[in-house]
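Q: Sequence in, structure out?
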Amino acid sequence: MPVDFGFTFRGERVSPDKFRPEYTSEFQHVLRTYAPSATTFLEWGSGLTTQMIAAHAEQIPGVELFMTIDAKADYQRAIFAERNRPQFLREVALDLTGPQSLALELPYSTYPLGLNRKFDFIFIDGRRRVECAFVAMLLCHQQSIVAMHDYRRIRYQPILALFEIIEDGREFRVMRPRSSVASAIAPNLSDVQSRMIK
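A: Exactly. Output:
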């Protein structure tokens, strides 16, 4: 993987120097260990990790999709303004709450449900993290991995009702779906999907 991760946004450089020293190496460890052959990636919260996931995915044959979702389109555009954008990358900028009406558009946290597909690796590092974790559960298959940044915040701990911990690093928590929860929601998932926009 390249080590020159970074981009410029509104004249300011966003680089690993803005994070703890182990931020980059720990996330690369997560990708190498838990997504060595993943072909579908989902990320809530675009940034340096978008570049790292893309660089990792470029080393894997047959990657189908890497979708990154963020609430700020200009910030998201800056991430690949200075580097090649992989063909499998799909960047989506969405409002955090969506329309305050019965409009059919899916907002930030629920947008991936409209794709009607599962993901091998899901990374949560944006807004509405507990809500995104619930949606992530619906997007997992039995071998899916879900990772979260800044996981120690008290308000994020309810997601442990959905996921069991595989590894806690200094920066990132790695989880897998609880089999009991996956079994419980499976019969109702088709009902949820039937109500999503195709």
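The longest strand covers residues 140-149.
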